[in-house]
TrEMBL record:
Cofactor(s) the protein needs: heme
A biological process term (GO) from this entry: cholesterol catabolic process
Molecular functions (GO terms): cholesterol 24-hydroxylase activity; heme binding; iron ion binding
TM helices/strands, residue ranges: none
InterPro entries, per database record: CYP46A1, Cyt_P450, Cyt_P450_CS, Cyt_P450_E_grp-I, Cyt_P450_sf
Protein name: Cytochrome p450 3049E1
Positions contributing to heme binding: C443
Species, as recorded: Brachionus koreanus
The entry's keywords: Heme, Iron, Metal-binding, Monooxygenase, Oxidoreductase
Length: 496
């Protein structure tokens, strides 16, 4: 009986403490506009149920953010359980957060659902000093001139994709372009970064892509439904997501052990991203094998899914915008003709192709938002933002903000052509368009992605006419990154 009374007292104490903390949290942010959460449920859960309902209806969180942006303006805050999230849709705020203040990160994606996924890899390392050393070393592998040395590899993987699509097109059946591109980007990052031959393009049953996608799904679930563990209906799904993460880790450990053994036996290793990681691993006392695996997974995930999604959205938009497709084809035919290997000069001349890739990332940024923590109180657009606020940097919403982009719902690549009159109607700069983030923690792989994206887009348009399946859905799903929910279903006809 005594134990029961003490337990009840402890529970009441803990609950009162939790309630008081929520009271203080809400008071700290009450000067900021945002969706109100009234009543007892609102007090304890904030927007939690609204978000879960929105996502269960197969909508993306970004569209809810956009609704709130329209209703509350460029700075607003909302509560989810015991956390307040601040969203800033303004170029000066983006500059302050990412450049002037270089706000710290939160390490999202490190251990979703309690499983080690990105762990303490380059993307999720929150200790600035440790991150700086690793980043400095890795930067060497991502300079444009170094990446250009891998152009042959990009070309040859692109040619394998063409061959496979050519074979598939003979059946006159609908093809999931998204799946094919997804396999190809996996093979590219594996070969270029790690000298690994995954050959998932010719082995569509390979599960690697699936493990990556499910790892990212786990990150989203963790973020948007932190109470999912309490729902018995989700248990099976959660377990299978956790198993996928474990499988990806297992694959990564095995691949690394093989590479380290090769290095030991031959005392030689190709100069690539993996060799830089191993250098970090050997020179940093604090760097252990688990962190090497974290980095391996980070580059695998960062280098594959994002670029595949960006390319897939290009095809979805091109399929709906025949005028743009016609112009793109004209440029590619003019620059490449029937040439099979794309070189650095060709890439530089494919200006409209770049504009198409950019416009696609404006409307459908593969990484639609990312987050930072405010290290101290700051003022943004006249609002005091408390210390330790969780900031969301809203790439997706900024790309649809009419203050910066004219006719934002339309797909108009001309806005990215500096000499085109329509570009003057837009305000495009590093703070309004930042699909790769900016500042010290920007995307290390952006040159990689731009080369790969442009080269594959050009090769596919050079070789095929395509039509979208009339049943194609244009809905989008967010598994950390944005992707077309239905893939990209096309009918392909070889052009020569
Ligand atoms: C279209 C393709 C891509 C997009 C849109 C993209 C976007 C981003 C964004 C927004 C960030 C910053 C995230 C944050 O601050 O939380 C980031 C970081 C990162 N990306 Fe990418 N990325 C792409 C391709 C790649 C590729 C191809 C690689 C590797 C080959 C890569 C590797 C990384 C890594 C390692 C980081 C962490 C950098 C650091 O914190 O130092 N990404 N990416």
């Amino acid at each position: 009986m005594k134990i029961l009374i003490s337990l009840s007292a402890a529970l009441v104490g803990a609950f009162s403490y939790y309630s008081f903390k929520i009271f203080l949290l809400r008071r700290k942010y009450r000067h900021l506009p945002g969706p109100s959460s009234k009543g007892l449920i609102g007090f304890y859960f904030g927007q939690y149920f609204r978000i879960v309902k929105h996502i269960s209806a197969k909508k993306i969180l970004q569209d809810l953010h956009f609704e709130w942006f329209k209703a509350y303006g460029p700075v607003y805050a909302y509560q989810v359980l015991n956390t307040m999230v601040v969203i800033v849709n303004d170029e000066s705020a983006v500059k302050t957060a990412l450049i002037e203040e270089d706000l710290p990160k939160k390490g999202i994606g490190a251990f979703p659902l309690g499983e080690r996924f990105l762990g303490i890899g380059l993307l999720t390392e929150i200790d600035k000093k440790k991150w700086r050393n690793r980043r400095a070393m890795m930067n060497n592998g991502f300079k444009k001139d170094i990446l250009m040395q891998s152009l042959d590899e990009f070309n040859s993987k692109g040619d394998l994709l063409l061959q496979r699509l050519n074979n598939l097109s003979k059946s006159n059946e609908c093809i999931s372009l998204f799946n094919e591109i997804n396999h190809m980007t996996l093979d590219v990052i594996a070969k270029v970064a790690f000298d690994l031959d995954t050959d998932s393009l010719n082995n569509p049953e390979s599960k690697l892509n699936n493990y990556i996608c499910r790892g990212l799904e786990a990150v989203t679930l963790d973020l948007t439904d932190p109470l999912c563990f309490l729902k018995p209906s989700k248990r099976k799904h959660i377990n299978s997501l956790k198993q996928s993460i474990r499988n990806l880790r297992h694959f990564s450990i095995e691949s690394l052990q093989i590479k380290l053994k090769e290095l030991q036996e031959n005392n030689f290793m190709a100069h690539n991203i993996l060799s830089l990681m191993i250098k970090n691993f050997k020179t940093d006392d604090d760097f252990d094998f688990d962190k090497l695996v974290d980095d391996f997974i980070t580059f695998f995930v960062g280098g594959q899914e994002t670029t595949a999604n960006a390319l897939s959205f290009c095809f979805l938009e091109l399929g709906q915008n025949p005028q743009v497709l016609k112009k793109l084809k004209e440029e590619i035919d003019l620059v490449l003709g029937k040439k099979s290997t794309i070189d650095q000069d060709d890439l530089a001349r494919l200006e409209y192709t770049s504009a198409v890739f950019n416009e696609s990332m404006r409307k459908w940024p593969p990484v639609p938002s990312f987050s930072r923590l405010s290290a101290q109180e700051c003022e943004i657009l006249g609002y005091k933002i408390p210390k330790n606020s969780w900031f969301i940097m809203p790439v997706y919403i900024m790309g649809r903000n009419e203050n910066y982009f004219s006719r934002p719902k339309e797909f108009i690549p001309e806005r990215f052509l500096k000499n085109h009159p329509f570009s003057k109607e837009n305000k495009i700069n590093s703070y309004t368009f930042f699909p790769f983030s900016l500042g010290p923690r920007n995307c290390i792989g952006q040159n990689f992605a731009k080369i790969e994206g442009k080269l594959i887009l050009a090769k596919l348009i050079q070789h095929f006419d395509f039509k979208l399946d009339p049943d194609q859905s244009f809905d989008v799903v967010q598994y950390t990154t944005l992707r077309p929910i239905d893939g990209v279903k096309v009918f392909l006809t070889p052009r020569f």
